[in-house]
Specification:
The complex is a heterodimer of chains A (281) and B (252). With 281 residues, chain A is α/β, with parallel strands linked by helices. Chain A has ten helices and twelve strands. In chain B, α2 (19-39) packs antiparallel against α3, α3 runs antiparallel to α7 (163-180) and α6 runs antiparallel to α9 (202-216).
């Protein structure tokens, strides 16, 4: 069953068409990544789904309800983690979680959430004394405290160092194993590749590609082969890399020559993404 | 109702934890009362019916406390919460907006009630000022004034655009207002221009009723004009707040 369904969503701010006919569905239990450069319409789309903005046109259902008309019961079932860490600086970690837990009729136990976000040793520390990464994890905890079915994560690891990002990914993976549906926006491609079951790439307010990350990558032809010859960089793109490599190397071996700096690369989601978002400019 | 009580407990904890609120809006009126009261403890004010200066000051500091807590404190807290995104985050939870706003205002009214009690006790202990004789009138007046200043606090908080400028903007309004309305000194000696300004300020009317009750033993009903002025200002605050209040940060 679809947790989220969006059909031909449109939204303008004055003359600017921020979202121009976006459609996608998110299945229950799925991690769905919304990718795109700044200004592509990611946040506008997500904020319409969260009930913050009104849409101009299109159909939207989130957990079977139109977010524009949703009330407290619906909010019991969603968790929202916004782009910027928004919390009270003068409460401790557990006090913050307990305050927010009180807003829900059946919240997750505070101790459990503290463990889940890896802040057990910081539970009695004031929010203003937490590091940026720790604040972000508490942010995530506040989004989870109501035990939601569907979680919106808007750029959850922006500004993290690589180590903190790995930790956050582990936490998010454990959410998946709890059966939560997650809508993740990010502009880190490796993050989407690592976490999302399916992604949609947004550019200038429209979906330019959608599918599992591996399919998006598989859908593009070229494997890239690079080497140097007489001090000159040679780059070949091919969808038959085995054959091309065989030709190259047997020729080089026959001539008793080294293919200097030989590199063979598969396209990453990043290449696909850059290709897609460039085309639409 | 359960959500209101839960949020009220949270708001009271947040109030107690905030150093800025605790000092500038809560302690400062008491500090001024003790300092100025000690300086003028033997004086009487002829222009105000020859009352003791300390009694006059006590009523003034109750007015100063009212705008410091209900107007300035509330406005600053609202701007900070809005600009930091806390209000936006709260909108995504099942906490209903009326329960949230009611709990927030109740916490500030409670802080003001404690402030008034503390000032009355200080006045009694330090300067031998008797507790006021018209308790019902006084409570009604304090409630009317505090609600009016809360409304104006929410209004001004909705108009201020950035968290950085919030304290400066609020201080630039309420400190001169406290001075002009005669919270610290009798405005009788002020030049005419300043008295004209004072005649517009809601604090002037609040102090007129509070002093009438505390210094002259009059009931609140002896001041219908002042009650009307306070209600009118409260209504202005409500209208502006309803028109300009935002849950989301304005600087984006």
């Amino acid at each position: 069953m679809a947790s989220v369904s969006v059909r031909d969503l449109r939204k303008s701010y004055g003359d600017l068409e921020a979202v121009r006919g976006v459609s996608f569905e998110i299945e229950s239990g799925e991690v769905f990544g919304l990718l795109g450069p700044n200004g592509a319409g990611k946040t506008t789309t997500v904020e319409i789904l969260e009930g913050y903005r009104e849409r101009d046109a299109g159909e939207v259902e989130v957990l079977g309800v139109d977010p524009a008309e949703a009330g407290g019961e619906w909010r019991e079932r969603i968790g929202v983690v916004l782009q910027s860490s928004a919390m009270y600086q003068t409460l401790t970690v557990t006090e913050s979680l307990r305050l927010f837990a009180g807003y829900y009729s059946s919240p997750r136990p505070v101790d459990e959430v503290v463990e889940l976000i890896g802040l057990a040793d910081k539970r009695d520390v004031l929010v203003r004394r937490l590091s940026g990464g720790q604040k972000r994890r508490l942010d995530l905890g506040l989004g989870l405290i109501g035990d939601p079915e569907l979680i919106f994560l808007d750029e959850p690891t922006t500004g993290f160092d690589p180590h903190a990002r790995r930790q956050a990914w582990e936490t998010l993976s454990s959410l998946r194993s709890l059966g939560k549906t997650i809508l993740l926006t990010t502009h880190y491609l490796d993050e989407a590749e690592h976490l999302a079951d399916r992604v949609a790439v947004l550019a200038q307010g429209a979906v330019v590609a959608a599918g599992p990350p591996s399919e998006l990558i598989g859908g593009t032809p070229a494997t890239e082969i690079r080497y140097r010859e007489n001090g000159r960089e040679v780059t070949l793109e091919t969808d038959r890399p085995t054959e091309v490599l065989h030709e190259l190397t047997s020729k080089a071996v026959a001539e008793n020559r080294e293919l200097e700096g030989l590199v063979v690369t598969r396209p990453t989601l990043e290449d696909v993404y850059l290709e897609l978002t460039r085309e639409s400019e | 109702m359960r959500l209101f009580r839960h949020e009220l407990r949270g708001e009271l904890l947040l109030y107690v934890r905030s150093r800025e609120l605790a000092f500038f809006t809560f302690l400062l009126p008491m500090v001024f009362f003790v300092l100025l009261g000690s300086t003028y403890r033997h004086d009487r004010i002829k222009s105000e019916g020859n009352v003791h200066a300390t009694n006059f000051l006590l009523a003034g500091m109750i007015g100063y406390g009212a705008i410091a807590i209900a107007f300035a404190g509330l406005a600053i807290v609202l701007v900070i919460r809005r600009e930091s995104g806390v209000l936006k985050r709260l909108r995504a939870t099942p906490l209903p907006a009326p329960a949230y706003i009611a709990a927030l205002l109740t916490a500030f009214l409670a802080a003001f009630a404690v402030e008034v009690l503390a000032l009355l006790v200080l006045g009694r202990l330090l300067f031998g000022i008797a507790f006021p004789g018209q308790p019902l009138s006084l409570v009604l007046t304090l409630l009317l004034g505090a609600v009016c200043f809360c409304g104006l606090g929410v209004a001004i908080g909705s108009l201020i655009r950035s968290a950085e400028g919030a304290s400066a903007a609020v201080n630039a309004i309420y400190l001169p207002a406290a001075f002009l309305a005669g919270a610290f000194f009798s405005p009788h000696s002020f030049p005419a221009v300043l008295r004209w300004i004072a005649d517009v300020l809601p604090l002037t009317y609040f102090l007129r009723i509070v002093r009438g009750i505390m210094l002259h033993g009059q009931p609140i009903w002896s001041y219908p004009g002042s009650i009307a002025a306070l209600l009118a200002w409260g209504l202005v605050g409500l209208v502006v707040a309803l028109r300009y209040f935002h849950w989301e940060p304005r600087e984006q």
